[in-house]
Design brief:
With about 170 residues, the chain is α/β, with parallel strands linked by helices. It has three helices and 20 strands. Strands 3-6-9-14-17-19-20 form a seven-stranded mixed sheet, with no helix packed on it. Strands 2-5-8-13-16 form a five-stranded parallel sheet, with no helix packed on it. Strands 4-7-10-15-18 form a five-stranded parallel sheet.
Length: about 170
């Protein structure tokens, strides 16, 4: 799964891992406790703030750098690694989607999925409702406008927005 190859989400080991993540996020969302984030995620830096509710597939593929802020309703589909750099802010209802599905109908019918890493650089701001697709990297110091759908890499130090997201100007 984390290597980018096709896998079956119905695999019993993955079903168990998702149940663990649901249990931990359920507890966190009911009564936010930073210790639960440390238990859930691969790595949590210092001064990290995650507003409840937060949702993820597995948790163990999520790395949050120092000073990261996730606003209400963030979704982290971490079937492959999701890395959020230090000082980065995610607005409400941002979705980081490492998970994706094959284009071939027969593969989808068979239940196959695949995933590609998502990397958000340092000191990035993803405004409200941004969706970042599988395999995308957003460079350091960039800003992504509200409601953008990011399906291609975004370079460092730019303002980008839209659907599909495009660079508007350098910062």
């Amino acid at each position: 799964m984390v290597s980018g190859e096709l896998y079956l989400a119905s695999d019993p080991e993955l079903v168990t891992a998702r149940a663990r993540a649901r249990e931990l996020t359920g507890r966190y969302n009911a009564a936010p406790d930073p210790a639960l984030l440390v238990e859930l995620f691969a790595s949590v830096g210092e001064r990290v703030t995650v507003e409840a509710p937060v949702h993820c597939d597995y948790g163990w593929n999520v790395t949050l750098g120092d000073g990261v802020f996730l606003n209400f309703g963030c979704v982290l589909l971490d079937c492959a690694p999701i890395t959020v750099g230090a000082g980065t802010m995610l607005g409400p209802y941002v979705q980081l989607c490492a998970a994706t599905h094959p284009l071939a109908p027969r593969e989808r019918e068979a239940g196959h999925e695949y995933a590609l890493p998502v990397a958000i650089g340092r000191n990035v701001w993803l405004a409200a409702g941004v969706v970042v697709g599988a395999g995308v990297t957003v460079g350091d110091d960039s800003v992504i406008g509200a409601g953008s759908v990011v399906v291609r890499d975004v370079p460092a130090g730019v303002l980008a927005a839209g659907n599909p997201c495009r660079t508007i100007r350098e910062l």
